Amino acid sequence: MKKYSLYSLIKNSFSYHENWQRAWRDPIPKKEYEIIIIGGGGHGLATAYYLAKKHNIRNIAVLEKGWIGGGNTGRNTTIIRSNYLWDASAGLYDHALKIWEGLSQELNYNVMFSQRGVMNLAHNLQDVRDLKRRTHANRLNGIDAVYLNTEEVKKFCPIINTSPDIRYPVLGGTLQRRAGTARHDAVAWGYARSADEMGVDIIQNCEVKGIKRNGGSVEGLETTKGFIKTKKIGVVAAGHSSVIANMAGLRLPLESKPLQALVSEPVKPIIDTVVMSNAVHAYVSQSDKGELVIGAGTDDYVSYTQKGSHQIVEGTLSAILELYPIFSRMRMLRQWGGIVDICPDASPILSKTSIKGLYFNCGWGTGGFKATPGSGDLFAHTIANDEPHKLNAAFNLNRFISGDLVDEHGAAAVAH
Amino acid sequence: MFIINCPYCGERDQQEFKAGGEAHIERPKQPTELSDDEWAEYLFMRKNIKGVQFERWNHAHGCRKWFNVARDTSNDEIKVVYKMGEKPPLE
Questions:
Q1: Is A190 exposed, middle or buried (0-12, 13-18, 19+ CB in 10 A)?
Q2: Of A72, A177, A170, A53, nearest to A123 (Cα)?
Q3: Which of B4, B38, B43, B45 to mutate to test the interface with A (most CBs of A within 10 A)?
Q4: pLDDT in tens, A129-180
Q5: How much is the pTM?
Q6: Which of B37, B44, B48 is closest, CB to CB, to A302?
Q7: How far apart are CA A265 and CA A321, in angstroms?
Q8: Listed residue (A332, A72, A324, A320) closest to A187, CA to CA
Q9: ipTM
Q10: Which of A15, A138, A287, A362 has the smallest number of CB atoms closer than 10 Å to its CB?
């Protein structure tokens, strides 16, 4: 694999950039793999990458039913932060954030990680109390967080309407300066390129149709490209996790719902940070192309349609307009939906199951992108050692039986 | 976004309704005898089907009555609407 560098960029410019090496191969699946990862999104590709890199297992396949990064990896609003309330979540998400900080160099692929800060707004007294509490909790966990009053919010992001007369006035906010955004496609492509280089087979257009079991352990997978033998399967299928679980005769504590996002026409730089509001459910940032990237909420019914309802978008845009009157004449360019798998406690599952050799990485709900590198690293550890890492031990399936939930609903700085 | 045929009010937009999740989950008859596993099954585990699923809906901004719906979650097409207490239709 040729290293990307300024030299290679100049060299390839002489041949009009027509001779760049393919970033990853398009292999035919082998008869057997040591480990198969179902799902070629960011989390799945990162899992394969860390299995190869840190655990020295090279006989791995990643099966993707569409194209890599075409699911939720390419549909999210690219926000990265670690300001979670509970210790278990703080440990998990800050582990990911620390990897993000060196990821472009590690992968030799520019994931355009930009620590532009994430600000969360408070609109009522309860919000103020909750955000102050979370700021203290974050700082006790070594995560940077500051509480801002209304004037400081206005100073940090001048286009916010801080008038006391609006329906949900801005009473304050929190700021995590290390938080920010990254280019989501590049994350999938960067992990794919590096995993492929270490021998991982990335097999696209290959849908899993069934899981073959021998009593209490897995034997292989029925796919649209034939039967593939394996003793270990890592399922990283996001909204379709329950579909895969049903093939193995398991039920998961998940509901899959459409989550929507939209982008505006591109404009000159106007907002240089990420602003989220839990109470009115509106969050906005600006992409490097100049589009406003806006996240809306989920529908409350189970659906796999990747569409979502119009009134959800309308509600989000009305909140955006009240907070940012300057956007009143912006036109929206695209709207889309992704299917998110939501756990009852709004925390993920990175866990072994009752079936030997079957592992699940799911339940990230509306906020999985930020965790991509950490999730891959910890899930790789869990599969390789057949034991969770201490950072994901709390996120096991057993918590729904023991009652030891990681309840991040409303505590995690954004509505899930 | 779709139209739901409320058995009491007729066809209305989905946003008048509140989704109540998977239907026909029976409340345990003897809660004191349940094991932790059985509680987890009842409280948290869901079929989350891609395809036709039986679910409860409430006409929250209309008659406020509960009823059941058989809906294909892969395309949001509603197959059958039936009242509370009725058995799910066999497909």
A1: buried
A2: A170
A3: B45
A4: 999 999 999 999 999 999 999 999 999 999 999 999 999 999 999 999 999 9
A5: 0.96
A6: B48
A7: 16
A8: A72
A9: 0.95
A10: A15
